[in-house]
Write a structure and sequence with these properties.
28 strands; four-stranded antiparallel β-sheet; 0% helix; mainly beta; globular; Methylamine Dehydrogenase, Chain H
Length: 305
């Protein structure tokens, strides 16, 4: 279990991708993680014996988003052109490749049997899991949807947009419940609900880390930036006490979720971290490992110390 003074060190660097790694997801098994990026490869890594990874599927262009649904043995991948790929690991003949969004599919998330994607066209789409096709779409922005995040109980779907706003959506009725305007200017890049679902953390191109209650009021809105450049990803520890941020400034930072205080900064030189932009994070229940992915073509596994 983590605690508010938890610190990390590099356990292993994973190599094998031939380009930037943009997306991470839980694997089909609890001790695995999946990665994807500009080479179109989807790679499975076993956290107890991670090197080498196993290529399990491939898309013919850059993959920006990734979602594993272990109960169905299905992977969903979103690509740079707005495609949504349904990849069936049991029956590849059932794979579906659907050109749906425009200008990229930046996020794919699920809660229970609800699957949603957000695209560069500002379109939020709910997908039919049984038919593997789009069910209903809602135009929530004139700019890209960069991040999607379900609340823990699934009653609210948050969308971070490149118009600077965060939209809180009812996923069943497909209506916008609340719009937090000017949350980050010019763009919101990352979202993470806290464990109880009553607060939403956000990171933006402005390098700011902010926290909001579900009425759209700021809980934590410091004047100073959390990073030097864009905050690309957020991840919450399994016990909900620690928040991680990943940035284009090559660093990962660890925060106390309760009060937003910085615990640790993981950087290139001191911690043997990433050499280029850190694009994605995944916090695994397996030994409380934090996994990061970068433009430097590698993944890093960070262990608690």
């Amino acid at each position: 279990m983590s605690h508010p003074d938890l610190r990390f060190s590099l356990e292993q660097r994973l190599t094998g991708h031939e380009g930037a790694v943009y997306a991470l997801s839980s694997g089909m098994e609890k001790d695995t993680v999946l990665s994807a990026g500009s080479d179109g490869w989807i790679v499975r890594w076993e956290l107890h014996n991670p090197d080498p990874g196993l290529l399990i599927s491939r898309v013919q262009t850059r993959v920006f988003s990734l979602l594993a649904m272990p109960e169905f043995q299905i992977l969903l991948a979103g690509d740079m052109n707005g495609g949504v790929h349904w990849l069936d690991l049991v029956n590849p003949d059932a794979n579906r490749h659907i050109q749906h969004h425009k200008k990229g599919t930046f996020s794919i998330v699920n809660h229970a049997n609800m699957v949603f994607s957000g695209g560069g066209d500002g379109l939020l789409t709910r997908w039919s899991l049984s038919d593997r096709r789009s069910d209903e779409s809602l135009q929530i922005s004139h700019r890209s949807i960069r991040a999607l995040q379900f609340s823990p109980e699934g009653e609210v779907l948050a969308a971070g947009c490149s118009d600077g706003s965060i939209c809180l959506v009812d996923p069943l009725r497909m209506v916008v419940l609340q719009r937090i305007r000017d949350a980050h200017l010019p763009s919101v890049f990352s979202l993470q609900f806290n464990a109880s679902g009553n607060r939403l953390w956000s990171g933006g191109r402005d390098a700011q880390l902010r926290c909001w209650d579900l009425n759209g009021e700021p809980v934590f809105k410091p004047e100073s930036a959390a990073h030097w450049y864009t905050i690309n990803a957020l991840a919450l520890s399994s016990d909900g006490e620690v928040l991680a941020t990943a940035s284009r400034d090559k660093s990962i930072r660890i925060w106390n979720e309760a009060d937003g205080q910085l615990i640790q900064a993981l950087d290139t030189v001191r911690d043997q971290g990433h050499r280029h932009s850190v694009n994605a994070l995944y916090w695994s229940d397996f030994g409380n490992r934090l996994i990061s992915a970068s433009d430097d073509h590698t993944l890093c596994i960070w262990k608690p110390i």
